[in-house]
Amino acid sequence: MVKLEEVSLDHVEEEEYTDTDSSSVYSSDDDEDDVDNIESILDRVWALQDVIPAKTRKSIADKCSTVYGWGKTSANFLGNSAWVLTTSALLLVLPLMIELEHEQGLIEYEKMQQQSTQMLSQPAGQQKKQASGIVPPGF
């Protein structure tokens, strides 16, 4: 159990701060004090088990465990779903896209073949007019 002690104001006022050397503020003792402060904070957190009843602590622990379990299950499900979707896309959509690109290339090749056939089948005079575009007068 915690024991409380009352401190009078007269006792606090009598003590004066006598350390005037600022270099002693940054000594190695401060590092040890920081470790002691960390330990005291951990001790205080650990001491909370005396404040919170055992039934409440068990209820909180069970709820945290349940939330952790649901979170872990959800993360596993999302990861597996992402894996299935990406592998399915690679196996099904990628070959389709490659085939569509190949077909588009064949269509362009056929158009070029038709254009070359049309150019070869036209008379020589018409080819010059089409090839030269606008001809200035007198030529």
UniProtKB/TrEMBL annotation:
It is a single-pass membrane protein. GO terms for cellular component: mitochondrial outer membrane. It comes from the Eukaryota. Its main location: mitochondrion. GO terms for biological process: intracellular protein transport. It is found in: Mitochondrion outer membrane. InterPro entries: Tom22. Keywords: Membrane, Mitochondrion, Mitochondrion outer membrane, Protein transport, Receptor, Translocation, Transmembrane, Transmembrane helix, Transport. CDD domains: TOM22. Pfam families: Tom22 (PF04281). PANTHER family: MITOCHONDRIAL IMPORT RECEPTOR SUBUNIT TOM22 (PTHR12504), MITOCHONDRIAL IMPORT RECEPTOR SUBUNIT TOM22 HOMOLOG (PTHR12504:SF0). Belongs to the Tom22 family. This is Mitochondrial import receptor protein.
